[in-house]
Design a protein that fits this description.
This protein has 236 residues and is of the alpha/beta class. The chain has ten helices and ten strands. The chain is globular.
Length: 236
Amino acid sequence: MLKVEGLSVFYGGIHALRGIDIHVPDGKIITLIGANGAGKSTTLNSIVGLVKPASGKVTLDGKDITGSDPKVVVSQGLVLIPEARRIFPNLTVAENLTLGSYTRKDREGVEKDRKRCLELFPRLKERYRQPGGTLSGGEQQMLAVARGLMANPKVLMLDEPSLGLAPIISKMIFEILKEINRSGTTILLIEQNAHAALEIADYAYVIETGEITMQDAGATLLKDDRIRLAYLGESH
């Protein structure tokens, strides 16, 4: 489905990514965990064309999309839900959802997906005519995910979806991500909440200072002493 091979990125003189390799198979949940500044967001931004890589290759369904315009990437079926949600605060929930489908021409499919989003997130149905800026942080994150789904992505990428949310809301978001995945959408997730990410991931990568240092099944890394010590706050 999505393949990242040898991805390198420089910010000025800083070598931010050093030959990143990630494979996101069709229908799976893949997570990339790491500390702040390790290169997680840079990886996602490079995949969708917001950051131009110095070298390496990104392919989606075998098609080379390396450094493509982000609008083209979205139309190919790759959608990024950025950190800090970035919804349109002055537009209503309904209008935010409509903007999510701006690359699509299939009206019937768009309405079907709108209905699905409101079933996934009943809170958004209640707030349908309210401006996005009046929603709570958790509701805004729900709206950001729903808006991403309105593009009908093959691969949904999420940058820190639980950031700043209460634990009960975070848990709800992760449950919904599992439901979205069960419905056929492939997910690439980056998260500082390593425990929650590893619990739902089929496979996981660990990134440290721009390099992949470990990779394995999510359940395996969850039990790894090095991961538990470094990311889960456990000593044994």
